[in-house]
Fold this protein.
Amino acid sequence: MIHSSDHTMLDSDLTEFRVEVRAFAAQVSGLVADSEKGIDRDRQILAARYDADLGALDYPITDGGRDLDHRYVQIFQEEMVTAGTGGSTSSFGIGIDMCLPTIRDHGSAELRRRFLRPGLRGDEIWCQLYSEPGAGSDLAGLTTRAHRDGNEWVVTGQKVWTSGASVADLGILLARTNWDVPKHAGISMLVVPMNQLGIEVRPLHQMTGVAHFNEVFLEEARVPAEWLVGTEGDGWRMALALLSYERSSLGRGGGRQPVPVDQLIDLARLSCRASDPLVRQDLARIHSGSQIIQWLSKRPSTHPSILKLWRTLQGRDAAEVAARLAFPGSPAWLGDTMGTTEPSHLIETTADHWSYAICDSRALSLGGGTDEVQKNMLGERALGLPREPSNDRDRPFRFVPRNH
């Protein structure tokens, strides 16, 4: 039984923690006030956060954390957003939100000592080496291979759609280490140093003009033998653990962001359509969706695919509303000003802001797994529906037909 005195003590602890975070947020706001956005600025924030004992809130004390639960993490995120610094570390999101939690939960003591502190402080940037040209939604069909050579793993293969690979110091990689067992059983997870002769990174330019993704070619890239996450052949379980963190992060607002409803309201006013009942209905729907995402993210039991799928739908809906408000030619605009004075919430006053947001919104349905993958996950894992039929699940991967 939980007594009222226990609740009072917890409320007091949470209040004290909120005060602590607000003081830190004020400090960070002053620290980066004159800094340009970018990796160096993000690194400053992360170093200050870690040194203030706020960089590993839900990590065990033995790993340099404070062993606090999700309520404290949520308070930290709320206060940082309120202070205007909540999204200031996006360059490091793959490491902090996905790779490092996986190493924290499944890595050896040596891996935790080597990677957690520098990753959380922003000393190292991570990327995620999962998808391949022939292994996207069927990720377990990957053919990048790794074999032991003394005290090292030797990795050869190709990855694609790798965010941040051009600036990453480290990559968390899935490779096939056993071809004589079914495809899910022959995969291992490795931590790969990206700055070596055996790795080539080629940017992939999107229709927005940004090269957010990359192709990565590995030709006998070398990995220390002890940089294996979990055990050999257990990489699929590690992969699912990381994907769960990724979907939770995307659902909470990590990575790409839907167009905020306050910006859409400003756009409606600027286009003199704020009194249009259909437009008001659109804005009310977007506002309701934003609130639902916030409420869902506060429930630790919410399946990560629900958060990810809901934010995807929200982002696409918001972009379509923006396109209607900015008129049909909005995606084709090339930087001509909207011809208005400063709105209260708009980040940009030029049309290319809307052009980018509208074109980029389609990627919300791809990163972290497509909408179809999320629905399959919910059907099979949340609702207990039967798996889709497969004729290769129990066959040694060496004998599974595949494209070469």
